[in-house]
Task: structure prediction
Amino acid sequence: MAQIKQLSHSVGQHCLLDVYQTNGNWLQDAVAIEELLRQAAQAAQAHILTSHFHTFGGNGGVTGVLLLAESHISIHTWPEHHYAAIDIFMCGQLLTEAAVAKLQKLLPDAQMQIRWLSREYLPKV
Result:
């Protein structure tokens, strides 16, 4: 039986960052986190539509999102584990790599595990 090769079409890049930082006071600072993500979005030449950040009082972390015309950048932090999960999804030909490079520059003491996904769809047959 012959196989039909279906070509997929990319709609964007999705980057997942696991960030580990032992001196991470910023992991509880919603204002600092929003500025961090805004600088990453600007480096990618993204268009910020709105943002929302929530702090989980006490020693809790922060969850937040920048809603972009091109998709989103989100973060969830766990200060007690010195850990943040950052999600960058951008459609089109934006400079997603520039956003990651900006985060690396702004967090020079952090260790980052970076995973890239191409978001794709299959054309109708």
DSSP finds two helices and six strands in the chain. Residues 30-50+65-109 form a domain with the S-adenosylmethionine decarboxylase fold (CATH 3.60.90.10). The mean pLDDT is 89.
